[in-house]
Amino acid sequence: MTIARSVNHISFPVRDVARALGFYRDLLGLETVPRPDFGIDGAWLSAGNAQIHLIAMLDGMQVDTPPPTLNPAASHLAFTIDDYAATLARLQAASLEVLPAGPEVGQMWVRDPDGHVIELIDAAVAARR
């Protein structure tokens, strides 16, 4: 019996929802979707068949501690991308720290404004594996 059928959403605690939206919506291109009013600031975004939930951290709230360096072995979320070179150029133009594995490997890692590690995987390279 299969209990977990698919990923519904991934949530990240964020210090500044607007700044996080600048990364996920404006830079990565995810679309916002309606979110109920929970009495806590946040945003929901569509990522294929799953969603990304950004939740404003409350004062004094203890949450995950992102790794001190950009590290592909850290817990992370991976998005499929269509154009490795264009994505890398866009991230570098935004002055973000990027750890590229190279176009032949098709993977790169970046951090969101709160330090969460995000992997970006070239769809064409992934399809060859």
What does the secondary structure layout of this molecule look like, with pairings?
Layout (H helix, E strand, L loop, with lengths): L8 E6 L2 H11 L3 E3 L8 E6 L2 E7 L19 E6 L2 H10 L4 E5 L4 E5 L5 E6 H5 L2
Parallel strand pairs: 1-4, 5-8
Antiparallel strand pairs: 2-3, 3-4, 6-7, 7-8
Question: What would you say this structure looks like, in words?
Answer:
This protein has helices at 17-27, 84-93, 123-127; strands at residues 9-14, 31-33, 42-47, 50-56, 76-81, 98-102, 107-111, 117-122. By secondary structure, it is an alpha/beta fold. The chain folds into two domains: 9-56, 2,3-Dihydroxybiphenyl 1,2-Dioxygenase, domain 1 (Roll); 76-127, 2,3-Dihydroxybiphenyl 1,2-Dioxygenase, domain 1 (Roll). A four-stranded mixed β-sheet has the order 1-4-3-2, with helices on one face. Strands 5-8-7-6 form a four-stranded mixed β-sheet. The longest helix is centred in the N-terminal third of the chain and has 11 residues, at 17-27. The chain starts with 8 loop residues before the first strand and ends with a helix. The relative contact order is 0.20.
